[in-house]
Q: What sequence folds into this?
């Protein structure tokens, strides 16, 4: 009886739409995606490529082999001073990461251009310059990861591409 239960539980979980955290079921149109970006080395683009691969996509660098193209139209990190000390030195910054993207397949727009953004504040002390630079880098990566999560949730809802005529 316990063997049957062991086989039944995974079947029930799969049937209810359960999937492991971080794993997003991708539509057929994203099985072989091309991530098109001006700078392929940004935190966002690298994290998006990694997330697509983790979720079963077979990334390609050739548009002729791609089942869909994820166009990263804007990938921008802005830094703004929020507070300064009495000696006019920055004490607090705001980081805002903005990404604008769209998705197309076989000449059809699957997802119109849309923008997502995430913002974080961090304090700054020139006495701890090295630690604060490291903290800023970690925040940049965390913002990129947050945006990848949003984008992946939108990608999982994409329709499958229609064959080219």
A:
């Amino acid at each position: 009886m316990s063997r049957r239960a062991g086989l039944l539980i995974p079947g029930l979980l799969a049937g209810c739409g359960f999937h492991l955290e971080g794993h997003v079921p991708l539509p057929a149109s994203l099985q072989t995606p091309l991530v098109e970006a001006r700078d392929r080395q940004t935190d966002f683009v690298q994290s998006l490529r990694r997330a697509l691969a983790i979720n079963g996509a077979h990334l390609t660098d050739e548009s002729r082999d791609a089942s869909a193209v994820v166009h990263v139209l804007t990938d921008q990190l802005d830094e703004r001073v929020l507070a300064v000390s009495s000696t006019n030195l920055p004490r607090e910054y705001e980081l805002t990461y903005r990404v604008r993207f769209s998705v197309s397949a076989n000449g059809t727009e699957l997802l119109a251009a849309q923008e997502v953004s995430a913002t974080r504040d961090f304090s700054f002390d020139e006495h701890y310059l090295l630690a604060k630079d490291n903290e800023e880098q970690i925040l940049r990566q965390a913002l990129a990861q947050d945006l990848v999560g949003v984008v992946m949730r939108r990608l999982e809802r994409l329709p499958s591409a229609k064959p080219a005529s």
